[in-house]
Amino acid sequence: MDQDIDRVLVHERRIRDRVAELGARISRDYEGKDVTVVALLKGGVVFLSDLIRSISVPMHLDFAWASSYGDGTTSSGNVALRVMPDTSLRGRHVLLVDDILDTGRTLARVSAELRDRFGAAEVKTCVLLDKAARREVDVRADYVGFEVENVFVVGYGLDFADRYRNLPYIGVLKPHLYAN
Ligand code: PRP
Questions:
Q1: Is 155 a pocket residue for ligand 1 (Cβ < 6 Å)?
Q2: Domains and CATH numbers, the chain
Q3: Which residues have a catalytic role annotated?
Q4: Ligand 1 pocket check for 98: Cβ under 6 Å
Q5: Chunked in runs of 10, what are the mean pLDDT values of the chain (180 residues)?
Q6: What is the DSSP string of the chain?
Q7: What is the pLDDT of residue 76?
Q8: Predicted local confidence at residue 154, as pLDDT
């Protein structure tokens, strides 16, 4: 897999240090509150598993899975939940965790659903990567690991055609691999 990577954008060690910092901040901010971490499948799970081990306050864990649907070749920008949280979120403080904030459609839509449909009292968001140059919806994450440039990144949960999620670092995929 390493041979498909043009360059490493965020090394394993930097990810580890930053995730620990985020976990410490989250632990301070949620002191005395009962937080439910909701992770977005699939990409968010690698980040999630490291992040929650840096969170020192009591927490609950749940999952959701959102997908875009469109005309097949381009996304229509419509995002729907295809896996719902399993526990009641009514009145709860939710921290929504995902790997990357790109156009912003997923985070905006899922945050709104967790509030409006599932009754969360508060939804804050935590992403490992923020690709601000791609933003189409006015959404900001409360906790951000790294701002990244507009390049195709894989690894640490992020995929191309469902591959590369298990790379321990964030890398830029060689363009010829996704050009067609
Ligand atoms: C990716 C990523 C985010 C979303 C961000 O998920 O994991 O959830 O896209 O994009 P947006 O800001 O433009 O909405 P993807 O649909 O690739 O699913 P996956 O996590 O299962 O790979």
A1: no
A2: 12-151 (3.40.50.2020)
A3: 102
A4: yes
A5: 94 98 98 96 97 98 86 63 93 98 96 97 98 96 97 96 96 89
A6: -GGGEEEEEE-HHHHHHHHHHHHHHHHHHTTTS-EEEEEEETTTHHHHHHHHTT--S-EEEEEEEEEEE-SSSS--SEEEEEE--SS--TT-EEEEEEEEESSSHHHHHHHHHHHHTT--SEEEEEEEEE-GGG--S----SEEEEE--SS-EEBTTB-BTTBSTT-SSEEEEPGGGT--
A7: 60
A8: 97
Question: pTM (2 decimals)?
Answer: 0.94
In testing the pocket of ligand 1, which one of 68, 100, 158 has its CB within 8 Å of the most ligand atoms? 100
Taking the centre of ligand 1 as the mean of its atom positions, its distance from the CA of residue 32, in whole angstroms, is 31
Closest Cα to atom 13 of ligand 1 = 103
Separation of CA 100 and ligand 1 centre (Å): 7
Q: Is the CB of 99 under 6 A from ligand 1?
A: yes
